Amino acid sequence: MKAVLFDGEQVRVVDDLEIRDPGPGEVLVEIAAAGLCHSDLSVVDGTIPFPVPVVLGHEGAGVVAAVGPGVGHVAPGDHVSLSTLANCGACADCDRGRPTMCRRTIGRPGRPFSRAGRPVFQFAANSAFAEQTIVKAVQAVKIPADIPLTSAALIGCGVLTGVGAVLNRARVDRGDTVVVIGTGGIGLNVLQGARIAGASAIVAVDTNPAKEAVARQFGATDFLDSVDGVRGLFPTGADHVFECVGSTALIRAAIELLDRRGQAVLLGMPSPTAQASFLPASLFLDKSVLGCRYGSSRPQHDIALYADLYRQDRLLLDELVTATYPVEDFAKAADDAKHGRVARGVLTF
Ligand SMILES: [Zn+2]
Ligand SMILES: [Zn+2]
């Protein structure tokens, strides 16, 4: 079968990938569509170290082809959107509704694929850039069949991360004030999460003025090209500031823009050795700085919720997809993503 494979030197589309049968608790999924996220390109450029050879892709949707022993929540023919969270479902963190904190989710890449008899790694417990992949039962979430799979493919990364940060981590409440710094794939989903949560004012900040229309479409009530203007709109500060760029200067700015009891949520990814500075005194008035992994999501609950909100026209998915490419055109899709020509490209199979 076809897949996008990175061998440590180059990334290319191969057509001789093989996959084993699903084992106990696993689901074999026929991928229909998969979003191209920067994390896939980060594997290729070395920012995310990963063992090779590896099949890329980590946000996808498709149709269940087969289930292994013990899987009862989905059946062949069901449409599913996939999460990247292969949480165990049985530890104390999973048990208290924190699957993103499951210690068994990271650092144990599986090898369900092979090429010419040699095993091939799976990226992010997912590898959606293949005609078929195998995921754990907890990762396959049934969605209504009337949702286009090209749109459902995006739920598993950007939407879970951005909307989840608002609803699960920050717990934005009706009437709260929100600032979103950076309106890329995550920022747009933070904007629509804030709209869904009922925030009274949602300020989008992006240095690219061409982003204003799409930011407003996703929920921004105001648009600024610099954080400097935020105080003019919120003289006492904001309840929630989401940093979606990964800039240490903007992390400091986010903290300085907080109102009393406000919270800064860090979603951008600075380099692992970057240091940010801030005045501890600026936090004394019950302010906090929050990290957030994968939208603090509970995929079986959240993906089903977001699919519902999409059908009620309250969550935008189609608008996130700016281009679709047959998988053979991966190189063009990667080039478009690298140069910012698309908000989100989706590969189809
Ligand atoms: Zn991603
Ligand atoms: Zn667990």
Characterise this structure.
The protein is of the alpha/beta class. The chain folds into two domains: 3-148 and 317-348, Quinone Oxidoreductase, Chain A, domain 1; 165-292, 3-Layer(aba) Sandwich (Rossmann fold). It is built from ten helices and 19 strands. Strand 8 (113-115) and strand 9 (118-122) form a beta hairpin. Helix 4 packs across helix 5 and helix 4 packs across helix 9 (299-311). The longest helix has 16 residues, at 155-170. The model has no long low-confidence stretch (mean pLDDT 95). One zinc ion (ZN) binds next to loops.
Detail the topology: elements first, then pairings:
Layout: E1 3-6, E2 11-14, E3 18-19, E4 26-36, H1 38-45, E5 54-55, E6 60-67, E7 79-82, H2 92-95, E8 113-115, E9 118-122, E10 132-136, E11 140-142, H3 149-152, H4 155-170, E12 177-181, H5 185-197, E13 201-205, H6 212-218, E14 222-224, H7 230-233, E15 238-243, H8 248-256, E16 258-266, E17 288-291, H9 299-311, E18 323-326, H10 330-338, E19 345-348
Parallel strand pairs: 5-9, 12-13, 12-15, 13-14, 15-16, 16-17, 18-19
Antiparallel strand pairs: 1-2, 1-5, 3-8, 4-6, 4-10, 4-19, 6-7, 7-11, 8-9
Helix pairs in contact: 4-5, 4-9
The structure holds zinc ion (2 copies).
One zinc ion binds next to loops.
